[in-house]
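Table S2 (continued). Query chain:
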Amino acid sequence: MLQALSRIGRRRVLQACAAVAVVLGLLLWWLLPLGEPVPTGTLTFSTGVRSGVYQRYGERLKGDLARDLPKVSIRLRTSEGSQQNIARVATGKADFTIATTDALATYLHGGKPGAGRLRGCVRLYDDYIQLVVPRDSEIRKVSDLRGKRVGVGQRGSGVRLVADRLMTAAGLDPTDDVKPVPAGIDTMPKQLEDDRLDAFFWSGGLPTSAVQELSDRFAIRLVPLEASLVKELQAAGGSARYYRSAMMPADAYRNAQQGQAVPTVAVANVLVTTDRSDPALTEAFTRTVIDSRDRIGREVHAAQLVDLRTAIYTDPLPLHEGASRYYRSVKP
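Corresponding output:
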């Protein structure tokens, strides 16, 4: 009898221990994080000039990143544009940025510091090259810029790169045949309005608010960049292969275009990081960019053009491991 009671007691103790183990296991499952650690720390996103599309896009993306990455502090840092953005990320002075593919290819082919570490996350939207003049200007084509005061973008910008190339393709020396003014989209519209510039180049998504606002208060016109000029541009080879002919829709700048589509040059933008970036962080960043497209696009129209079907094509950069994981996770 005593032995039987002893066996029953031991069994009950074992059952109780097993129940406690199950409860503890459930608590641990509930309380402890599983899988990869949640990204933490500080992230620097290099954008662009204050009134440009890169900066406006970055400001709105920051809010969505803060929601999706609550333990990551996001800092925006303005810049002169694509060329400076790439140099910052490549050398560890920023973690993510946006840059045009022609500027990326130029940096890579130049063998500049950290070039081999650059990685792509998302092909974003296209920039359209815009050559803006007063409506009554005599400038009708790029070669008419000879002897004129021309805003060409800041030295570290993507617009400076393409402006110099376009003028060269049109038979102009971008230093000697024009009076180049190294200014950004934050100051060029006002300089044109005040007759301190005869024309300015801009490379950005459509519409760019600074150009839109200028067209609302001052009569401007967009100079056509014809397909023949694009062919001449592409003939230079190298990173110039990333340019393509495009049309600015007639309603991009209604007051400036007066119902006319304008031929121009387009070049793609890419979200850029390096192989130093944590895969979990990069995967989450990529997801936020895609998921926020429609919301941000209501304020920054170019964001609407981010397309999941083409986002994976980040040439000339290889795709980052974390971004690749995101695309695999959403593949049908």
